[in-house]
Amino acid sequence: MDDTLRTVASFDDVNEGIELRLRLRIAAGRVAALEISNARPAALLAVLRGRRADEVPALVQRLFPICGNAHALACAGAIAAARGDDRHRHAEQQRDLLWAELAVAHGWRCLIDWPAALGRPPQLAELRELMDSAGRLRALAQTLPPANADARTRARNDLANALAQAVFGDNTPRALHAAALCAWVGTQASPLHELLDVIQGSPLASLRQPDVTLLSTPTASWFAARLSANPDFGRHPSADGMAAEVGAYARCSSAERALFDASGPLAARLLAMLASAAALVTRLREAAQGLLPAVVVDACSPLPASGCAVVDTVRGPLAYWVRLEADRIADLRSLAPTEWMLHPRGVLYQWLPGLPAEAAQHAARLALAAVDPCAVTAIALEGMADA
C-alpha cells in the first residue's frame, strides 16, 4: 500500500488554526500603526528532524489541521522528489483528496466567515451537507485499490453541485466567468452582496490598491531556491525583498482583476474568492468527465536527496522543502499562504493605518475578510483614551 495515501487522515472541521493577533495603535483619532503577531512557534517543524520520512506527512497534517490534506500532500511530494520516486503515482486520488478539502474551505468562507463578518449566525446545516459530499469523495480517494470510476465520477459531480449550492444557494448563475459572477453578486441577495454594501458605506471604500507584488502560481523550483537558501524564508517571505500577495486575487487574470477592481480593492478580493469557488465547481465537473489532468502537486529535486513540492490551496500556494539523510528528515521547511500577509509592507499594513479610530475594529475585520488568513484570535485597540 502506498504510504502517501495511507498518511492522509480525515478533515478536522473544528480547529484553532494559526493564531494571529492584530494590535491597532490609535493616535489623534486615527489608526497610527499596526502590529501583527504570529503565535505559531517558529521552530515547530524542527520536532520532525530525524524522523523516518514515511512518518512525516501524517505528523505534518496533525500539526496543521487547517488544510491538513494539502500539508500532507505537499510534504509527501517533497519527500518523493528527494527520493526520486514517481511523483505522479496516485495523482487522481491526490487530486480528489485536495479538492474535497478545498470545497469545504470555500464553503466555510461563504457559510461561516462571511455571515460572521455581518454579525449573522453561521449556516451550519448547509455546511454539513457540503462536508458530507466532500467526505464521500475523500473516502473513495482513500480506498485502495481505487474505487470504480463510476463511483468517483458521481462523487465529483455531487460535490460540484453541493459546492454550488453552498456558494450560490438556489440561484447558481448559468455562466461562472468573472462578468457573470459580478452580475450575480449585484442582483442576488447573499452574504457577499451585503458585505460589499457594507464596505462601500465604510471608510474602506476609499482605499487604494496596495503596492505589492502579485504572485500567481510560483513553481516548486521558485520555492526550492528560496526555502533551501534561507531558513527564515518560511517565516518571513518576500518576493525578492518586496511585499507580495498570494491567493485568489493574485491568481486572477488581468482581465478578471480589471472587472473586480471597479468595485474597490477590498471588494475585488472578495469577488476573486467567489470566482475561485466557482472555478472549483467547474473543475470538479470537468474532472468527472475526464477532461482535466490529475496532477495537483508540483515537485522538483534541485539537488540529490532534497525535494520541494507546492500545492495550491484556497488561500494560495503551500510549499514544503526537505533534505533527507538515510531516508530520515535532516531538514524540513515550509511556507504557508498566511505568512505573506505578515510582511511589514504587506496589504494590511498599507490598508489599516490612517483609518478613523471609531471604525477601526470593524474595518479591520472587513479587511481580514478580504485577505482571509487562517485564523485571527484577537483585534486589540491601544491608545483609545488618547484618541
Account of the protein in words:
The protein has 387 residues and is α/β, with parallel strands linked by helices. It has a single domain, classed as Orthogonal Bundle (Cytochrome-c3 Hydrogenase, chain B), CATH 1.10.645.10. The protein is built from 14 helices and 9 strands. The protein has helices at residues 3-6, 56-63, 68-83, 91-117, 124-141, 149-168, 178-187, 191-200, 220-229, 248-251, 254-261, 265-288, 347-351, 360-371; strands at 20-27, 30-38, 213-214, 244-245, 297-300, 306-313, 316-325, 328-335, 378-382. The chain has a 4-stranded antiparallel β-sheet, with helices on both faces. A 3-stranded mixed β-sheet has the order 2-1-9, covered by helices on one side. A hairpin with a 2-residue loop joins strand 7 and strand 8. Helix 7 (178-187) packs across helix 12. The longest helix is centred in the first third of the chain and has 27 residues, at 91-117. The radius of gyration is 21 Å and the shape is globular. Mean pLDDT is 90; it is low at 1-18.
